[in-house]
Amino acid sequence: QVQLVESGGGLVQAGGSLRLSCAASGRSFSTYAMGWFRQAPGKQRELVAGITSGGSRNYSDSVKGRFTISRDNAKSTVYLQMNSLKPEDTAIYYCAASTFSTLRPPKLWYDYASWGQGTQVTVSS
Description:
Blueprint: E1 4-7, E2 10-13, E3 18-24, E4 33-39, E5 46-51, E6 57-59, E7 67-72, E8 77-82, E9 91-98, E10 114-115, E11 119-124
Parallel strand pairs: 2-11
Antiparallel strand pairs: 1-3, 3-8, 4-5, 4-9, 5-6, 7-8, 9-10, 9-11
């Protein structure tokens, strides 16, 4: 099973930027679809951004134009660059991996079999 280790979370003021990183173990990273989810208190887990093994991306409407997901298969790492952060972006952010081969990234949490530990992102006003 792939192991995922996240880093890069923290506290930032509104309008600032953070970059989250997720490093994966194993030899099959390049075949996985990868996703970033977030969950705030009282809200359901939400797919923020996803990327397939072929590089196809999708984003939630709330982050389009502000967040960018990318992957470096040589480093077995996926990134989430977050710009123009808003207080409503405050949540625990999770990295996840899916073995499904689809043209677009899977959108539902149960389509992802492996999860990171989560990293807190807090945006102050």
